[in-house]
Queue: 4 jobs
Job 1
Amino acid sequence: MKKNKTHIWLITTDQMRADAIGTENETVRTPVLDKLASEGTVMTNAYCASPVCTPSRASIFTGRYPHVHGAWNIGVSLDEDEVTLGDYLKQENYRTVGVGKMHFRPQCKTDFSTESEDVAIRDRGREKDNTYYGLDEHHISEDNLLGRYLDWLRERNPRVADRFELDHYRSEDAEHDVWESDMPEELHQTYWTAEKSIDTIMAHDTEQPLFLWTSFVDPHHPFNPPKDYAKLYEDADIAIPHSDPAELRLRPDHLLYQGLNGYWPGGGEPHPYSDEHLGRVIRNYYGMITFIDEQIGRIMKAWQQRDMYDDVLIVFTSDHGELLGDHGLMYKGPWFYEGLTRIPMIIRGPGIAQGQRTNAMMEHVDILPTLLDAIGLERPYGVQGLSQLEVLTGKKEYIRDSAITSYDAHDRGIQAKCLRTNRYKLVVFAGEEYGELYDLLEDPDERCNLFFDHVSREVKLNLMEILIHRLIQNQDPLPERKTNW
């Protein structure tokens, strides 16, 4: 690979499960992503840094764990002194551009207000260099849709913008966070994210390497795709997840009663939705993903039109998954079930093995060092992730033998770590006697908690030892020592 001649395209979605893609789930229509997978390598055992947005996004962009980079949960900002992927690439003369959801800063005002933060404050450049965490250009639209997208929408169609600000095109039969939207596709936030990405590519001087981060807000709830995309799944045979009463009795106490203690989001009790409603949720969720898939295809054509596609290193992933009714739960939060923590990971580009599918473990923190390695740069001191390049090029079977996911809400009384190996999953809750242990070979649906099972005691102790070593090794290596004493 030629140093500094490889363009980089990071594509992220928000709240997308690893099994919500055509290569894993034939019900979901993602022809563009399926083709991307055939052109590159699929990492089937990739895990998020945290089951909520900000910590995972900050780990992707710094290569450091949430307890180290400091953005430990939503509502907390990433420290402006953290060195990011954008910073490293700028040092190599990359033009760095971000489009869509960043979420490195809170979207609400302080003092636990539900009022949206002013865009000028939320999206401001850093004091030291006026970049947005190392991005030369940033076109941001977050969950609340305030920012560049809303400005663009008002310029395109003031009437649609007025209606949108009123109720987000909520339909008359909307129920909870679910409806099919009349929002014109070409004015949708997902379309805008692609449009701004295309503008970036078309205006770029191809002699300079480009880093483009295309960050879709969907398929985050509300589950409200444009109607035509919802219709694609009207006749789809949707498997409705159900909760087994027996598993509820084995669920850790905080997941049963967290609502009483102020944990976010809500309680851990089973959702109240009917099978019919849950089916509508899942169909709309898939519709949102198909819409995203089409927009990724539009951006690909722009790379091809500029004759840059063969030189683009592409990473497609998500910040975390979505419970989507699994175990009677919805959305995200302090859980570590596979639907929430396992994420899609497709990597394609110069030198990457084509059509490869590997179960090698990968973490969010590995993205940054892998990208830098791919353009000929060594892992910077302070970066905790490991380069997966030798797996991606077929030289090694695996780099890691475990993955860690963390949830930290210490201000609300809960801290937890999850260790995932090829076979087992261990979850430890700080200060509590209870925990979770699943044998994913025998129990892939994670219904039988073996944490207190006497027969599994040795397995639990072995996993505890691995976790302890990982946590010791994962402490912040900064500052770097440069003298003897």
Note: The longest helix spans residues 275-305.
Job 2
Amino acid sequence: MNRKKKINETLKKRMKKANAKLHKSNKPRYISKAERAKLEAEAAQQVSAEETTSPSETETTSAETTVS
């Protein structure tokens, strides 16, 4: 009886591992605190860069439309 039980346990264990590989987790990838701070800094730089370029671009486009 013990031999059968051990064989069945090992087979179940193998099947469980195979099934676990097939199903991917829906859990999002972990992002470290340092990485989050770096991404936040990059986003802040992009926003500040857009703010500095936006007024000059709008002035040139409004000047072009008035000339036309």
Note: The radius of gyration is 30 Å.
Job 3
Amino acid sequence: MNIDKSEFARVLDVTEEHYRKLEAGATGLSADKILILYHTYGIDPTYLIAGVSSNIMDFNLEYYVANSSKEQRDQFFDRVLAYVAKLIK
């Protein structure tokens, strides 16, 4: 994408060292960071979660929920519910 690592670190509100660990797979992305990358750059969440690019419509919710921590699931569903609430207003 031709985006500097320092830019990704800034957008994710992490240090460059922490971003290097994210990129290397030494530490995982939280659901909120995945959403930031999706909303800011259009990066496919499935790619960030599974390492395989796919159409956003093919996002495997059951797999994501089954393989997330309770905190990640809670954050994810809070965001989904907030999004649905905006849609129905």
Note: The radius of gyration is 14 Å.
Job 4
Amino acid sequence: MTPTQVPHILILGGGYVGLYTAWGLRRALPRGRAHITVVEPNPYMTYQPLLPEVAGGELDARSVAVDLSRALKGLDLFRGRLLSLDLAGRTAALESLTGTPSTMSFDHVVLAMGAVSRTFPTPGLAEHGIGFKTLAEAVHVRNQVLGNIAIAAAATDPQERAKALTFVFVGGGYTGVEALCELSDLSRLAVDEYPSLSRSDLRWVLVEALDRVAPEVGPKLSKFTLMQLRERGIDARLETTMTSCVDSQVVLSDGSTFAANTLVWTAGVKPNPVLDDTDVPRGPKGHVNANAKLQVITDDGVPVPGAWAAGDNAQVPDANAEKQPAFYAPNAQNAMRQAKVLARNIAADLDGKPLVEFRHKSLGTLASYGVGRGAAVVLGIELKNRPAWFADRLYHGLAVPTFNRKWHVFTAWTAGSFAKRDLTALPGIEHPRQAFLETFKKK
């Protein structure tokens, strides 16, 4: 780069890290100081902590989707995906939405491509399971739960009805527990609308390989969470795995077998597999190697010039942890805060100033288990049920990016306090041309 060239900062990913890094650089750098490009195939950033409320019908899907074109005004948004990355040559091979390949050079690159669902080669899982990581998945699961309740109401075969009313979640972290609770609440309200069904017909099963659920909230609140689930009639199977789900027949390691039309997989995440097509140094679990200054580092700990990483696709050392080595958890709280430090460090690097380390002591953990229920640790104080639920809503309502989305979220919650929850299923949106194609069939 010559002294007269404007440095190009390439941000790969438009999630938490990508959006907040771009915002931080836009504020920190004078106009014209750098050219910033964000690469993201989706037109929006999803605020993932509120996906359970989307599935449960408490929020509209668009309330948690931040329009990137509007949010990134003044910056370049490349709608497409990364094909490969050459750190040594400082080039990225990209593909646009139209399928057109291109090569983009950069002076600085930010690896912010997040994570995807971590799956295993369980027989039948690919054919019958669905994750809970994206907005589309949350909407689909909602439609599937409501649709299966309608199928059960119309069924005359007891086995078909039982299969339609059996819902299985595999993975008992707080994300899975939150989603399960919201959907089980939704299902109880939905069956009340059918005279032929009762709440006792519903069967919700949680399968967890560990000896506890929601370990993120701590041992005491984990036990409280398990008690809450079982009091609500949820069949929580601990120290259990799913060995097969071929033809929707769920087989568990404890020997039980049953049929289920709905199988949701929430058993953890892994770094975005597109990293396999890069020359980025990575750790044993596939995360990008990073230091406390959020620089990409080699296996020997040497920073790679112009390369940065944060969020779910990176392992960032946590010096505050008692047991070492330790890394920051892959959650929204850490990702957003890392992004702000990352933006300051890139700006400092451009100006030849010293970098700072990312140090963050967690403010706590929040989990909502449906209206008025939850578990939380806030500044070391444990909260249960309504206080925890209120803290969860207050925090996430304020943390949703942009004033526009905050307004949507808070107004939806306010309206929900006075109106019944929406029980409308929209399965047709997943196959919108079906009705049109029907008109071409021969009579």
Note: The mean pLDDT is 93.
